[in-house]
Structures are given as C-alpha cells and as structure tokens.
Amino acid sequence: MEFTGFCPQGIDLLTENQMMNSAAFYEEHKAQIKELAVMPFYHLCHDIAADMLAIDPAFVVTPSRMISRVRRDTRFSKDKTLYRSNLWIYFRRPREQFEDVPFYYMEIGPEFWRYGCWGGFGRGEMTQARQMILKEDVRFLSAYEAVQRVPEMKLTGELYKRPKCPEAAEKYQPWANRKYIGIDFTETEDFAPAFNGSFVPEMLARFQTLQPFYDFLCTIRERAKKEQEGYR
Asked: 105 φ, ψ to 5°?
C-alpha cells in the first residue's frame, strides 16, 4: 500500500497508550495502534526502499527489523514507562545486538517529527574523525561540503565541555568537539507535511545530498575497527 502520510489519530493513540501505561489497555487497542501508528511506517519503508538502497545497497529493508517497537525495553533504564509515544524507522546495515552503526532515520511523535543521519558512536570512531579533520582528508571535506548544502538541517551530537581538538580550524570545531555526530531536520509546529506525506521527496533529496556525510561515518567506523583489531 502506498504511503500517504502518518495518521494524527495514530499519534494520539500512542500518546494515550503511554499515559495509561497499562498492558491491559495496550492489548485492548493493539490492533488499532498497529493499523493507525505502525503500518504507515511499513508503507513508507516500501515506498523509499529503492531510493535508500541506492545510497547503500547493504541497508536492511525488512520493515520488522527497521521500525521501533511500541513497547519499551525498560531493563536498563530508570524510566520504567512501558510504552513510547513516538516511533521511528532506521535505514542501516546489519548489526550485532547492541552494536551501533551509522544510520539514516525518520521519527514522529506528538511534539515533533524529524529525520537525519547519525554515527560515530563506537569506540575510537570520533578519534578517527578528528584525525581526518586535521588532515583535511578528502572524505571529510566531501562530508563537510555536503552538510553545507542542506542548511535546513542542523549538525548535532553531544559536545565535550572543553575543546577536544583545539588545533583544528575554527570552522571544523563543531565537528571535532563531539562525542558522536549527526545531522537533523526537526519540525515542531507544522505537522501537515508529515500527515499528508509531502515531506518524502524533500527528505529523500536531502538524504541523497548527505551521502558523503554517511560515507564519512562509515569510514571512521571501519578505520576504528581496524585499529582495534591491530591491538589484539
């Protein structure tokens, strides 16, 4: 079925389900939640899978492996709320359990909808990124230029309190001083594009523009893994 947008009633139902925080309520409304909130992500995945595979043929495109669960995993969290009010979809390569790999994503909840590209989570990855920044490696420069071409999206990721790489050029400091790195488009007021599906062509165009940024994230991950293997 073609993606025609997310359903406002689905978002409202997710919010109510989270507020009720009840397994009984969830089971009673499970079919509605799936139809109104989860299935639109299946349709979105189906519609854009070919475009995303053009960015990386190794992406997993099986919806059941890409879409977040309504039920939260609370085993390692202080927040014991059973259900989430936001859902998202990942486009990423196959991974081991609990392994972080670079990804594109799209997410919607009651207060925002957003999409972007993230990476640099693994051990040593941002160290590799800083080395590439200092050398002005061509893959970093391509990523940097790609980000400049999407001014509507914001470079983000938790920052160190003190400059991690003070010798890097000033314009590169927002990259070099992060614990991990991503770029997001976030909308908190106008939900119409999300509800009517009109955001998709623009999102895909931006994802394609950001392919050098995604490739950069994959490169720092691969280099970090090789360096760790060399110490074994």
From this structure: -150, 165
